[in-house]
């Protein structure tokens, strides 16, 4: 009860110090424990509100070990946020079907990923970082480029950047209302009704003449 | 140089302690100084990353004085985020013109407020709180209810909640892309081109048959 964890006060602990009394040895289990702690804290407190020290504390390891395995807090965030669904696999059917009906397929794929609780948690955490410069960069360069970039070029759109930015603006807002702000009736609406509502709009952004 | 500000270590400092050596007396100037410090810190670090103590530090006053004037951190946030534009005034012309063309007027009003740097800063800070439960409540109950609720009822829409949630989903996403994530080409696009792009979509959500 009165024992103090080693390194608790030690901001200046040497970075190379990795093993010692009371610290777990490096192992796949330790990595998984750290990642689980990071996911929990990032989800609860967001990127800015989470420290590597707090993650280490929750995982029962020294902060230096977290840095050793995962690098900076931003690196840890990327590792922890690794979504279960590979975005390239998920959007493949959207692209393969061609432009016709691509709007509907895209909305349906997106909702199937977000409606699944296991894939939603890390994505939600990623979206919670939207207020933070790191989180913004991750969202813009990660999700936007990994998911929407390939769709735009895969479908062979004219003005792909402009069209996919419009698509992103609607899908981002839909996700924000349904999952982040939990605005009714969108939050409780059946996925197929949302597909029917948004598919024509996304299709419009994909292939209608733009002003 | 070696002087320590009173109360620096004092988490349990009595709440009523308001004046003393080294603290500024309460005055309109002090309020303004605190609000300016709060705006700066909330904008820089978001809601979760900002403490009342840090705001007090930046303003050069005791944290108890901040609590005395503004209450909790959430109360301070609301006070600091007070937007320059009264949303009721801003949306009045959208409502007065009736449903016809309301989509276009709404997009134009929104962009005129957001493109103005003075009104953008507090709004941006409000949006940065989207990852945080407090910020979410403020966004949902504040902006959504203050701005979009009156439009839905003022225009006499059928299914106003559903239609305004759809409107919100597109406008929120547009704002996120243009001002928060700064996604090109939306970030640099002339406002009138955005109006022409989004007005038909917003109008659709306002008055088209919905699935």
From TrEMBL, chains A, B:
Which keywords does this Swiss-Prot/TrEMBL entry list? DNA-binding
Residue ranges of domain HTH tetR-type in the record: 28-88
This protein's superkingdom? Bacteria
Q: Where is the stretch described as Disordered?
A: 1-30
| DNA-binding interval(s) | 51-70
* Matches recorded under Gene3D superfamilies: Homeodomain-like, Tetracycline Repressor, domain 2
* Basic and acidic residues biased stretches: 1-11
| Name of the protein in its database record | TetR family transcriptional regulator
